[in-house]
Amino acid sequence: MNRRQEKFIHVGNFVAKVEVDLVYSEDSWSPCLSLDDAKKLDEIRMALQKGDIKTAARSAQIFQLTPVTKAA
After folding, report:
1. 11-50 pLDDT, tens per residue?
2. Rounded Cα–Cα distance for residues 14 and 32 (Å)
């Protein structure tokens, strides 16, 4: 059985929202990611670390974080 889920990758002031499939089975490691989804997460993380937003955005929705200051 598979179930779609969103994973988030935080690098610097960027966050990538990635859709992955969780694979459920009878073994003790369940649920887990497929090899393709694990590679996709790694590729997106590496692209964000390099500052390559265009590449990361091919497989994920990218958000830029903005610090919020406390009002005095």
Report:
1. 999 999 999 999 888 877 788 898 999 999 999 999 999 9
2. 25
